[in-house]
């Protein structure tokens, strides 16, 4: 939509952006904004006239998301944290909506993707090094993110539910790769190298039901106390990291396969289906079974798309039964 300054600010706030004061905005201000969701991600396309803005620090409780800003037209100079970025077309930058920000731009267009902070799993020390730093959008992983974000903003409404969830996971993973590449300019200290090695060890053994802090510590010839100390400044403890990565694997498999919840949970180390179901709902806000029900209903509808096909009436009855079984359940977000 196209709107004046007041309408534009209202739409920005509704999209999850912090309040900004534009020193150059006058009565003739006209901005364009379009918001689309892709699974847990929100993509906001903006077109603005020449601007000079400041956003004040916000409470940590408002910091559920981090933002990746991708330029499509014009130039912007951004200051946040210790970083200062000069962005041209295709360039991108990581921003924290809770921190003070200043920027000046020509008439410009850009896409900002709001990513749940928990999805990127960035450590506080890494965040400080990345905030407000330009990432080249024409070469390497940054170029892939730049293209993917711009195309996702244009095509997000064409995704079906399961496609949106899986595509969002791919976008987040690629953003993580680009951020890690940007961090690669500095040499990690020994603790970081060991922590990264342990994280890789965990990732490779998520399906092992015996994966636990004592076993991980023994495999790396360190004490359990030392293992926990390595992760004390991280967003997740060792046990919580194992649990979260297993849940993410389960969610991805339930979204794209026809396997039962119990089978998928067992495959990724959850031996108690009841405990898994409670944990899944507490983490994502909807039942794991809702993904299976949604997949089955969609597959049934596809098989019985036309009444002229053999067995069409029976297929419709079967589809209705699947749908009726899903009634009353929480459904995954669109």
Element-level helix/strand string:
EHEEEEEEEEEEHHEHHHHHHHHHH
> For the terminal residues, how far apart are their CA atoms?
22 Å
Outline, from the CA principal axes?
A: globular
Low-pLDDT residue intervals, each spanning 5 or more residues: 307-331
Please estimate the helix content: 40-55%
**Beta-strand proportion:** 15-25%
Q: Structural class, please? A: alpha+beta
Mean pLDDT over the full residue set: 81
Radius of gyration: 23 Å
Sequence of strands across the biggest β-sheet: 1-3-4-11-6-9-12
Q: Helix tally?
A: 13
How many strands, which pairing sense, and closed or not: the largest β-sheet?
A: 7 strands, antiparallel
Number of strands: 12
Structure in words:
- With 334 residues, the chain is an alpha+beta fold.
- The protein is 47% helix and 19% strand.
- It has 13 helices and 12 strands.
- Helix 4 packs antiparallel against helix 5 (161-183), helix 9 runs parallel beside helix 12 (288-303) and helix 12 packs antiparallel against helix 13 (312-325).
- The protein is globular, with a radius of gyration of 23 Å.
Name a few traits of the molecule:
12 strands, 334 residues, 47% helix, five-stranded antiparallel beta sheet
Give me the secondary-structure topology.
Layout: E1 2-3, H1 5-14, E2 21-22, E3 31-38, E4 41-48, E5 51-55, E6 65-73, E7 76-80, E8 83-87, E9 92-95, E10 101-105, E11 108-116, H2 117-120, H3 124-130, E12 134-135, H4 140-155, H5 161-183, H6 190-204, H7 213-219, H8 224-230, H9 238-256, H10 261-267, H11 273-284, H12 288-303, H13 312-325
Antiparallel strand pairs: 1-3, 2-5, 3-4, 4-11, 5-10, 6-9, 6-11, 7-8, 7-10, 9-12
Helix pairs in contact: 4-5, 7-8, 9-10, 9-12, 12-13
């Amino acid at each position: 939509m196209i709107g004046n300054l007041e309408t534009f600010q209202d739409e920005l706030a509704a999209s999850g952006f912090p309040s900004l004061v534009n020193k150059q905005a006058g009565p003739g201000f006209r901005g364009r904004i379009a918001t689309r969701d892709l699974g847990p991600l929100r993509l906001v396309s903006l077109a603005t006239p020449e601007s000079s803005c400041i956003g004040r620090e916000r409470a940590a409780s408002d910091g559920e998301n981090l933002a990746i800003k991708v330029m499509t037209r014009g130039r912007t100079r951004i200051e946040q944290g210790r970083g200062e970025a000069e962005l041209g077309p295709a360039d991108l930058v990581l921003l924290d909506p809770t921190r003070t920000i200043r920027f000046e731009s020509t008439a410009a267009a850009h896409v900002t993707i709001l990513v749940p902070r928990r999805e990127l799993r960035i450590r506080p020390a890494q965040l400080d090094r990345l905030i407000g730093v330009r990432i080249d959008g024409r070469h390497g992983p940054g170029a892939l993110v730049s293209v993917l974000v711009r195309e996702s903003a244009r095509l997000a409404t064409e995704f079906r539910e399961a496609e949106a969830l899986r595509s969002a996971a791919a976008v987040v993973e690629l953003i993580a790769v680009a951020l890690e590449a940007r961090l690669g300019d500095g040499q990690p200290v020994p603790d970081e190298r060991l922590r990264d090695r342990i994280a890789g060890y965990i990732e490779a053994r998520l399906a092992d039901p015996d994966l636990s802090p004592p076993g991980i510590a023994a495999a790396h010839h360190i004490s359990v106390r030392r293992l926990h100390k390595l992760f004390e400044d991280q967003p997740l403890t060792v046990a919580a990291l194992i649990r979260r990565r297993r849940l993410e694997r389960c969610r991805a498999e339930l979204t794209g396969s026809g396997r039962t919840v119990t089978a998928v949970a067992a495959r990724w180390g959850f031996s108690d289906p009841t405990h898994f179901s409670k944990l899944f709902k507490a983490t994502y806000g909807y039942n794991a079974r809702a993904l299976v029900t949604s997949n089955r209903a969609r597959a049934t509808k596809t098989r019985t798309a036309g009444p002229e096909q053999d067995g069409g009436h029976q297929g419709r009855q079967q589809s209705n039964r699947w749908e009726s079984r899903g009634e009353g359940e929480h459904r995954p977000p669109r």
